[in-house]
Design a protein that fits this description.
Strand order of the largest sheet: 2-3-4-5-6-7-8-1-9
Mean pLDDT: 95
Number of helices: 10
Number of domains: 1
Helix content: 25-40%
CATH topology: TIM Barrel
Distance between the termini: 18 Å
Largest sheet: 9 strands, parallel
Oligomer: single chain
Number of strands: 9
Length: 272
Amino acid sequence: MNNHSTSTIYLGTGGYSDTDLLGTLYPKGTKKTDFLREYAKQYGAVEINSTFYAPIGQKAFTGMINKAYEQADSELKFAVKLHQDFTHARKGTAEHAQSFLNALTPLIEANALAPLLLQFPHGFDRTREHRLYLANLVSWFGDYPLAVEFRHNAWHTPQVVDSFKQQGLIWCSVDYPKVSGLPPSRLIFTERTGYLRMHGNNLNWWDAMSAADRHDYRYSEAEMQNWAQAIANQRQHFDTLYIFFQNTVNAHAYYNIAMLRDALGRFGFEVL
């Protein structure tokens, strides 16, 4: 055990609508409309990914709060992925950003908002133009905690990490498969809140036909213990850490969260 104040770690999945979780996380026969209620009984946080593909309005977020807070009596935290216009098409504007934030009002009022996630594609390299775009984007969301994931190696430098610390940005750490063209898997903290996305180690990443195929990987107990150790080694660098497993296909995430929860518990963390 340690003498530090206890750090809090939130575990959850990327999205909550994968029917592969029926029979494990969700009791058999659970209706899709009840998935979030059941989810909130088990996990402390969820990463909303559907917002990447299509905007969600206030009404939908109000419904989520109702299911998680009223029906499940939980205090579920919601990380929200920014729409692809901001990161992939890169045609976002300050007005877009404001309407995206307006939609989040129910989460903000319920104190349910975890960091917003900006996930840039492999093609977003570190050019001057891209650095300027990122600076603008950050300014539009300046009042909210922002976690940024870069898939292009050029961003993975000490200078960029230092600039995140100066700007109060959260470096999104990611466990990627060990294949060429993807950045190395490292746990980096630039703020007292950390963010870690677990993508698995499917070596067919580049050949996979879908996101589900890419994430068809179940971590071993040993891999989860290694991650727990890596997190414990850096416990002085964070107060809160969000960890989201993307491998919900075949319910891999359900088993891996249980493994990691157990492994982290041995280090005395508060795990939600």
